[in-house]
Amino acid sequence: MTSSRLLFFLAVLSIVPFFTGCREEPLKINYELGIFPDSVIALEGLNTEHDDYNMDIEAGRIDARLPVVFSSNRQSAGGEFDLTHGLIWYSFGQTTGSFQLESEMAADVFLDRLTSAFNTGGNEFGPLRFFNGRNGLEYMAAATETDENGLDIVFTSYIPAFTNLPAVEPPVGATLFNSQSDDAYLSLGTTLDTAWFCSDRGGDFDIYMLTRPAGLSLGEWLMSPAATPALVDSINSTWDDKCPFVRGRYMVFASEMQGGMGGFDLYYSVFRNGKWSSPVNMGPGINSAANEYRPVLGIDLKFENFFLIFSSDRSGGKGGYDLYFTGISLP
């Protein structure tokens, strides 16, 4: 072997251990579960200079990409409120602990069809979407403004939009809840056997509940003759209490009750030993001297805390009510 070839061979031998010893180590998992940050984040891709609020997240959906429906008066330049829709998505780095959140007004042919079915010449508020495992149908409810009764709760049902886009029937009145007063912001328990909503039938807005009789289907129940609901214990005040949203054993809602930070504040209550606990103010990390409104509580099993989406007309937004996102831990 010539000296030049010997030197080349020795050089190769010296390089091989270098490369074989530099195998890439797997990224270290420092966070088994994600953490929604407790800072309040504006949903910039959804907000406008007009009022954007009353968001709904589809119950039972556990996904980092969330199609959302909400109320906005952008289409009338600050006039009537219609339902519109967008998209929220988030990610969490299990190594770095970094959280990213994005939002946009994304195209969705089915949600176009669904929201259009609800929109009228009046206002639409408080959308709620949910799945009924007993008949395999999805539902959406909302409050719509009528000439006769003010706000009434209406709903429709449809086959889930998996591949083919289903037809959407015009909403019908959920006569069970409706009165000659304003009735709005329906929320349903996990089994769809208990309903909460707010109404000013007693003078100011209070939160009421109804329980479904055994043997009555959901559709039959919603379209039953108007019933006399019960005031929710421990929740209501002498001020306006509105926008109940129930997730498991937690209820979140908006109230003008005394002791708050200004206008409507957000509160939570926990169902224990057969009754709701006294309301707890969510504190200055979420509430402000302005109004906070229509909270919805979300869950992702890959995260250790809940997330909360709400609306507020606080300073620093794009104008009017804007939509916000934050993480929240509940007892």
Summary keywords:
disordered N terminus; 4-stranded antiparallel sheet; 5-stranded antiparallel sheet; 21 strands; 10% helix; single chain; mainly beta; 331 residues
List the helices and strands and how they pair.
Layout: H1 3-20, E1 41-42, E2 52-57, E3 65-72, E4 82-92, E5 99-104, H2 109-118, E6 124-132, E7 137-146, E8 150-158, E9 172-173, E10 183-188, E11 194-199, E12 206-211, H3 218-222, E13 230-231, E14 241-247, E15 250-255, E16 265-272, E17 275-276, E18 280-281, E19 292-298, E20 306-312, E21 322-328
Give the helix/strand class: mainly beta
Our measurement of the CA-to-CA distance between the termini, rounded to an integer number of angstroms, reads 78 Å
Any idea what the radius of gyration is?
25 Å
Give the biggest sheet: 5 strands, antiparallel
- Shape, principal axes of CA atoms: globular
Give the helix tally: 3
Strand content: 35-45%
Sequence stretches where pLDDT stays below 50 over 5 or more residues: 1-21
Order of helices and strands: HEEEEEHEEEEEEEHEEEEEEEEE
The averaged pLDDT comes out at 92
SS elements, strand count = 21
Percent of residues in helices? under 10%
Structural features, described:
This protein is mostly beta strands and 331 residues long. It has a domain at 41-245. Helix content is 10%, strand content 39%. The protein has 3 helices and 21 strands. The strands form 5 sheets. Strands 14, 15, 16, 17 and 18 form a 5-stranded antiparallel beta sheet that branches. Strands 1-21-20-19 form a 4-stranded antiparallel beta sheet, with no helix packed on it. It has a 4-stranded antiparallel beta sheet with strand order 2-3-4-5, with helices on one face. It is globular. 38% of the residues are buried. Residues 1-21 have low confidence and may be disordered.
